């Protein structure tokens, strides 16, 4: 996993050990996935709140991680040790989109079935700097958590470069992060790899995304149990030789790193990740972080029903996942994504896939977030749009020539809207979730009757939205949440909430 250079130098050893490995390069697809009714359909309108995003609303998938996310060895043919250094990125659970869901389960392949225009998943074999292959799966073999901020910056740069593919502001994006194997494989000899320090690097990476990319659901796959490797090695001598010989996971064979310690460290890592998302540090209207903990207490190696270890789960190095392994993990991760925070499976299995593949909860058919897990009714604030506004004949057309007299101005002749006013014009609290009185301090300026132009008339009636329908170049209306001095948001709606309170104070 870590030391690919060393891996290559040991390849001759490997060839001897591996030449006669016999395992089956199997795969797992779900040919008949279907959910009741409209559960997997996209929302009628692009959601504006992160707590009402349906799976099919996801337009872009992105992935930060290590060699597991890079798919190292996932498609390695039987007895081909060299292939473990190949990044079978397209087969990986988190960011791979090779084949179809019918043939191979990955998170992107599930999403792709319901949004064929999904973008960002990797296809094929290659490193993160080969755009055609990696796309937005920038996971790096050997990466520790302290590499994630760099990966996050790389991802932001790619999103900014590829505006032909990604609509930065409008597209909902799923960011999968999975990291930690290399950290815990080195912790026994490097105290700077303590779980709390590693998770602070994850936090730093998410902060970079939070500050630069709107409309993101970050789905952090919690740390796995490295102890599973040790159990596998205990019965497979060639795996033990491999792991010791290549140095893929030094702590696994380290005598000081006993089972109690290895297990405790991995669980601590996973708990710190859960704490980070539970802190709601990264929750806002269009952004959230959720930790998926299905591997936290998963402490059994992949087993056949008769109790023997199923090496088909692993790539030929007994460490990385095979394509079958990636598919099995994908079924559990998807199940976690559909389960509410606080009630997520914390002990999945790598022996059996989570089938049938989970469906969204009909009472809350969204990717589950901190807030919609607590109260799903907060997700969709009631609104009033007029989807079929039309007036007879030419009544809403602009004048043939720009009128010169104020008494002959038709609605569609208006080019600019402007607004003076108080907190009602500033839209204070207009988009505040029910039972969230604190959100009343937010200026939902784009939703206000007089100067707001969020959404369209079809979705939300406002004076600007009516005018906009007949003059798409209308200017001056505000969009989003912010104060009058944020030009990008307020535009010419300069209404001031304080105006109201100041006056009260002076009378
Ligand atoms: C899907 O197919 C599998 C295997 O072909 C079968 O066992 C399962 O019952 C099917 N599920 C549904 C919902 O049709
Ligand atoms: C395991 O290792 C830890 C830390 O090195 C040590 O405190 C503990 O006593 C060890 N436990 C066993 C059962 O050897
Ligand atoms: C256990 O089951 C697997 C898969 O069916 C088979 O390959 C293996 O030989 C079996 N092992 C024993 C000890 O029965
Ligand atoms: C517009 O749509 C609403 C709801 O879809 C419907 O009740 C109304 O009759 C429609 N009005 C016109 C003029 O078509
Ligand atoms: C390369 C190699 O040694 N292959 C051998 C693997 O084992 C089978 C039978 O177990 C032999 O037939 C192959 O020659």
TrEMBL record:
GO biological process: phospholipid metabolic process
The keyword Chaperone is assigned to this record: no
Coiled coil feature spans: none
Keywords on record: Signal
UniProt-listed InterPro entries: GDSL, Phospholipase_B, PLB1, SGNH_hydro_sf
Signal peptide (residue range): 1-19
CDD domains membership: Phospholipase_B_like
Record GO terms (molecular function): phospholipase activity
PANTHER family associated with the record: PHOSPHOLIPASE B, PLB1 (PTHR21325), TRIACYLGLYCEROL LIPASE (PTHR21325:SF44)
Protein name listed in UniProt: Triacylglycerol lipase
Organism: Diploscapter pachys
């Amino acid at each position: 996993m870590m030391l690919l250079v060393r891996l290559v130098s040991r390849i001759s050893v490997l060839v001897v050990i591996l030449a006669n490995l016999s395992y089956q390069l199997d795969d797992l697809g779900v040919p008949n996935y279907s959910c009741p009714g409209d559960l997997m359909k996209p929302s009628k309108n692009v959601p504006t709140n992160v707590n009402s995003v349906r799976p099919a609303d996801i337009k872009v998938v992105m992935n930060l991680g290590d060699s597991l996310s890079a798919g190292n060895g996932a498609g390695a043919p039987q007895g081909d040790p060299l292939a473990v250094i190949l990044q079978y990125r397209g087969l990986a659970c988190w960011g791979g989109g090779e084949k179809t869901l019918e043939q191979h389960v990955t998170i992107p392949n599930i999403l792709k079935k319901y949004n064929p225009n999904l973008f960002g998943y990797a296809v094929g074999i290659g490193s993160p700097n080969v755009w055609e292959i990696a796309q937005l799966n920038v996971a790096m073999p050997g990466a520790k958590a302290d590499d994630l901020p760099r990966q996050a910056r790389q991802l932001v740069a790619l999103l900014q470069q590829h505006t032909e593919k990604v609509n930065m502001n409008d597209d909902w994006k799923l960011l999968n992060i999975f990291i930690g194997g290399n950290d815990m494989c080195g912790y026994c000899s490097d105290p700077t790899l303590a779980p709390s320090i590693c998770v602070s690097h994850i936090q730093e990476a998410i902060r970079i995304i939070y500050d630069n990319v709107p409309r993101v659901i970050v789905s952090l796959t919690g740390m796995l149990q490295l102890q599973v490797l040790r159990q596998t090695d205990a019965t497979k001598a060639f795996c033990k030789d491999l792991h010791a010989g290549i140095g893929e996971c030094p702590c696994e064979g380290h005598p000081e790193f006993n089972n109690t310690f290895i297990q405790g460290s991995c669980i601590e890592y996973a708990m710190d990740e859960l704490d980070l998302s539970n802190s709601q540090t990264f929750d806002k209207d269009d952004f959230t972080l959720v930790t998926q903990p299905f591997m936290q207490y998963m402490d059994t190696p992949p087993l056949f029903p008769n109790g023997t270890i199923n090496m088909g789960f692993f790539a030929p190095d007994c460490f990385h996942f095979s394509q079958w392994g990636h598919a099995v993990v994908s079924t559990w991760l998807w199940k976690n994504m559909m389960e509410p925070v606080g009630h997520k499976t914390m002990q999945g299995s790598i022996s059996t896939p989570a089938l049938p593949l989970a469906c969204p909860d009909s009472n809350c058919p969204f990717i589950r977030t901190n807030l919609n897990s607590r109260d799903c009714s907060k997700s969709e604030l009631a609104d009033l749009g007029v989807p079929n506004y039309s007036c007879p004949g030419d009544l809403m057309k602009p004048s043939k020539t720009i009128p010169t007299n104020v008494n002959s101005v038709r609605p569609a002749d208006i080019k600019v809207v402007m607004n003076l006013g108080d907190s009602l014009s500033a839209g204070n609290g207009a988009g505040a979730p029910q039972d969230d009185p604190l959100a009343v301090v937010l200026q939902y300026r784009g939703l206000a009757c007089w100067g707001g132009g969020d959404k369209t008339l079809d979705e939300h009636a406002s004076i600007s939205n009516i005018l906009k329908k007949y003059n798409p170049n209308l200017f001056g209306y505000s969009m989003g949440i912010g104060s009058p001095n944020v030009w990008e948001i307020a535009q010419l709606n300069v209404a001031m909430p304080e105006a109201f309170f100041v006056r009260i104070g002076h009378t």
